[in-house]
């Protein structure tokens, strides 16, 4: 089926109609878009109270859940029920081998795993997070350099119709490049918010993110559910879009827009867009 040059998947009409209307809204927003800010909060799942605060932050943010942690599944369920103006994207924060040998916790994906073991581990991790729409790496400074491992990872992500955000814990990472080759919608982290948690550092890093957004049209900012970070975001987010003329987007929405702007294959866009439907 074709509609004004957009090839769609073979879908029941009511789903096709809903998808088409969503796409039209997306295209309309592109035409008048302010610079985009994508905030991803990693390491959700071990602390219920801090995870709950992250879910309740105002605006559209993305939460990256550690697999098989005590509160990941219940918090992801709550995150999926946020209203449209405070929607929360849901990602798997996939534990990947690092160069320092730091412990990865449950669901660890390591460099010595063969294809079958690595992919089975990733599948199990994905199955542990309800409503998951994408993946980013927890640590991963070692594994993201391994071309074969990243190919196996992206094969699973592509088959599920998900996206990948490279946390870029190592500048030698091949993850985003491999995602592109595999046909996985992808992006890379631009700024870390809270490597240092003092207020002055948070302000500096956040301003750096805004500057990057204005320069390149978007920015991906990664932080964590530290009390200091949550305090800061609770203070700045309510007036951010109006005050700074910045648009808060989930990673889902940002990548759907990016794919349109880059002229991605229509079936790819439709597949990702279906993930955005309630």
Summarize the structure in words.
With 278 residues, the protein is of the alpha/beta class. It has one domain: Glycoside hydrolase/deacetylase (TIM Barrel). The chain is built from 11 helices and 11 strands. It has helices at residues 13-31, 48-55, 72-79, 115-127, 147-160, 175-182, 199-216, 227-236, 240-244, 251-261, 266-276, and strands at 2-3, 6-7, 36-44, 61-65, 88-96, 134-139, 163-166, 186-188, 191-192, 218-223, 247-248. Strands 3, 4, 5, 6, 7, 8, 9, 10 and 11 form a 9-stranded parallel beta sheet that branches. Strands 1-2 form a two-stranded antiparallel sheet. Helix 2 (48-55) packs parallel to helix 3, helix 5 (147-160) crosses helix 6 and helix 10 (251-261) runs antiparallel to helix 11.
State the helicity in percent bands: 40-55%
Helix-strand sequence = EEHEHEHEHEHEHEEHEHHEHH
Number of domains: 1
The number of helical runs is: 11
β-sheet strand percentage: 15-25%
Q: What's the multimeric state?
A: single chain
Count of β-strands: 11
Q: What separation lies between the terminal Cα atoms?
A: 23 Å
Q: Report the biggest beta sheet as strand number plus sense, adding barrel if it closes.
A: 9 strands, parallel
Low-confidence stretches: 1-14
CATH architecture: Alpha-Beta Barrel
- Write down the Rg: 18 Å
Instruction: Enter the CATH topology name.
Output: TIM Barrel
CATH superfamily: Glycoside hydrolase/deacetylase
Brief descriptors of the model:
278 residues, alpha/beta, TIM Barrel, 9-stranded parallel β-sheet, 11 helices, 11 strands, globular, disordered N terminus
């Amino acid at each position: 089926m074709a509609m004004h040059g957009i090839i769609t998947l073979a879908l029941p009409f009511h789903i096709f109609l809903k998808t088409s209307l969503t796409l039209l809204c997306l295209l309309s927003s592109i035409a008048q878009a302010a610079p985009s800010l994508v905030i991803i909060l990693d390491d959700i799942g071990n602390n219920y109270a801090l995870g709950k605060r992250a879910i309740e932050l105002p605006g559209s943010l993305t939460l990256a859940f550690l697999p098989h942690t005590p509160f990941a599944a219940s918090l992801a369920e709550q995150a999926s029920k946020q209203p449209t103006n405070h929607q929360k994207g849901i990602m798997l924060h996939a534990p990947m081998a690092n160069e320092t040998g730091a412990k990865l916790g449950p669901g660890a994906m390591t460099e010595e795993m063969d294809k079958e073991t690595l992919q089975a581990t990733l599948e199990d991790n994905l199955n542990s997070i309800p409503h998951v729409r994408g993946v980013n790496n927890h640590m991963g400074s070692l594994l993201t350099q391994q071309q074969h491992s990243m190919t196996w990872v992206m094969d699973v992500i592509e088959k599920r119709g998900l996206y990948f955000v490279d946390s870029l814990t190592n500048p030698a990472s091949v993850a985003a490049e491999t995602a592109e080759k595999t046909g996985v919608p992808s992006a890379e982290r631009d700024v870390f918010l809270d490597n240092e948690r003092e207020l002055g550092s948070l302000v500096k890093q956040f301003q750096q993110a805004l500057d990057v957004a204005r320069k390149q049209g978007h920015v991906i900012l990664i932080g964590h559910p530290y009390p200091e970070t949550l305090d800061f975001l609770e203070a700045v987010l309510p007036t951010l879009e109006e005050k700074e003329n910045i648009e808060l987007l989930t990673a889902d929405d940002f990548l759907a827009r990016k794919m349109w702007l880059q002229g991605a294959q229509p079936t790819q866009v439709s597949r990702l867009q279906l993930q955005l439907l309630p």
